[in-house]
Amino acid sequence: MRFATWLSGTRAMALGFATTFRHLFRRPVTEEYPEFKRSLPERSRARIVLTRDPDGDERCVACYLCSGACPVSCISMQSAEREDGRRYARWFRIHFGRCIYCGLCEEACPTLAIQLTPHFETCQRTVLSLVAEKEDLLVDHGGKHPEYNYYRHAGVAMVGGKGTHLGEAPPVELRSNLP
Ligand code: SF4
Ligand code: SF4
């Protein structure tokens, strides 16, 4: 019995040493950051941006849904309306010092305006430098959804007449329905 215990202990120890020995001659896999930067998947959740639609207009319609969905209340804004009736955020602010990069704001956004990007190198020495204003957040592209245009899908008159919106059937000539 004692011999069997000794044998199994010795075997386990030999296996352990063998593993250590094998790794001694392997190439190290350490990635030296920041010299080496691994490219992250497109859907990684880091720095947040506000995107534009294919017409170049701001997508955000200041509906407050992202701000309501945010579990740490780090999004604030004030809504306003252009002369043509299109809504926008007069100011839009995210406190990245509180953001936990959960992505709920992106999930809640009906216009695909707010998007998380893989850019994670955003640390600062003072917490107030982590407060981003609209001009820091607004980019001049559509991000992950370059083709999406909320207003053209919604079928509102300010971006086209009846029947010209995406997926919209042409208007029916009422008189043609008469018996
Ligand atoms: S990622 Fe999460 S915590 Fe950060 S702003 Fe969006 S909802 Fe708030
Ligand atoms: S980013 Fe999206 S969810 Fe947030 S206010 Fe603008 S349109 Fe609404």
Helix content: 10-25%
DSSP strand tally: 5
Radius of gyration: 28 Å
Structural class designation: alpha+beta
CATH class of the domain at 48-159: Alpha Beta
Order of secondary-structure elements: HEHEEHEEHH
| Spans where pLDDT lies below 50 across 5 or more residues | none
Beta fraction = 5-15%
Instruction: Count helical runs.
Output: 5
The geometry reads as elongated
**Side-by-side strand order of the widest sheet:** 2-3-5
Give the CATH architecture of the domain at 48-159.
Answer: 2-Layer Sandwich
Structural notes for this entry:
Strands 2-3-5 form a three-stranded antiparallel sheet. It has a two-stranded antiparallel ribbon with strand order 1-4. Helix content is 23%, strand content 13%. The N and C termini lie far apart (102 Å). It has helices at 2-24, 65-69, 104-108, 134-137, 150-154; strands spanning 48-50, 75-81, 87-95, 114-116, 131-132. The chain has a domain at 48-159: Alpha-Beta Plaits, CATH 3.30.70. A hairpin with a 5-residue loop joins strand 2 (75-81) and strand 3 (87-95). The protein is built from five helices and five strands; from the N terminus they run H-E-H-E-E-H-E-E-H-H. By secondary structure, the protein is of the alpha+beta class. The structure holds iron/sulfur cluster (SF4) (2 copies). One iron/sulfur cluster is lined by residues 60-66, 108-109, 111, 113-114.
